[in-house]
Amino acid sequence: MKNSATYDDIIGTSSDSGDDNSGSETDSTITSEQTLDVSNLGSTSYFQINDTSSGVYVNGSVMRITSTGKISFTTGIDGAVVTVVGAHASSNSEADDRTLTLYDSTDTAVTGGEITYAQSNKTTDPVEIPSSSTLSAGSYYLAASDHLNITSITVSFPGVITDTATLTFTNSGTADEELNADSTAYSDYFTLLATESKTLKVSTKSSKTFADYVTYDYCLKSGGTSAYTNNIPTARAIKFATSGAGVVQLYGVASGDDSDRYARVYDSNGTAGELLGTMTVNGKNNTKVSEIIKLPSAGTYYIVFENAVSLYAVNVMVGASVETDSSGSGYIFTDSSDSYVVAGTAISSSEFENYSDMTVTVTADGEASVSTDTVYAAAVVDGFIIQPSALGDEYTYIYIVQVESSGGAADFAYEAYLNEIETDSENA
Length: 428
Fold this sequence. Notes:
mainly beta; six-stranded antiparallel beta sheet; 1% helix; 41 strands
């Protein structure tokens, strides 16, 4: 007889619509891309207008901003840029150049935050500010020196994870690639923190297979313990930001065969903040996959190392949450409209249509299919490994079940079961 297992770390879509937004964020705080134009001028909570009669107002198909106008907004996470589509408003060929300037909450102009519009140039090409950096979380406003026609203003987060992101590595050389300065060469979303004295290295090909199905060929060698300034990681660490709550999972091995080594996930306050999760590794060939670690809100996060760790991959999914379900079942979130990756095999979403309850299985050799056979070892959904080994040796198979389908997308549930094990007491 199979008995349901209890598993406290279940990944799933959040069913609670009343998320706790405690802290400084409000409904008007921008944490994902938002745009202001004539269609929502004065009606969106993300952009506040000081004067809609003469300061900022609709003028035909554009917004007219004058020298008395102010457009304010607040970002809840680091990494924002502002893209403006606008032009000089005067038809007088003798009119002086006019500027649109971005200010912070102290009324200080942001470095690289000024756009100059010439009367002779009526083009409305997008201009991104700040010109050479991004904005820290905080409050800002745009003000004009004189009348300008603005088609749109967009606040976006080009380096912030809004859905899913995976960090992996590659090295075509014959020696380890040494990183001695911050690098985003391997992803738009992850910054590898390194210095001249505290380097990171990307290995030559050194393939490792995780949970029987997922293989990565290259790793990031931490070279030792992370370095800090006032508790904030500055070297031998990884930094990333998300637009909302989510989950992260780490894949790695130890760089040596001695005692335990650790990769840990902290919030934006570094080691002075909250420790969210840990991957413990020991042995060069003993592959480890971390538990699914909860990221509680939009914000900046750090992956740090204690001793030398070889990190093969990092998966982040925004919009998923770790929940507790005493029945041993839960959901895993996916936005995919084309296929779902189960144990490394892509299954077309069309196979899930018109089913309200079915089982996707993974056989012992890693092949995935829609069937009802026993599932061995582990399953991989959207890059996240769900493995019964974390529950103990007696757990040997997992069902991946579709529980809801809408418009070609599906949520998944999984349930782990105990083997039928005869014990001495049962045989007595």
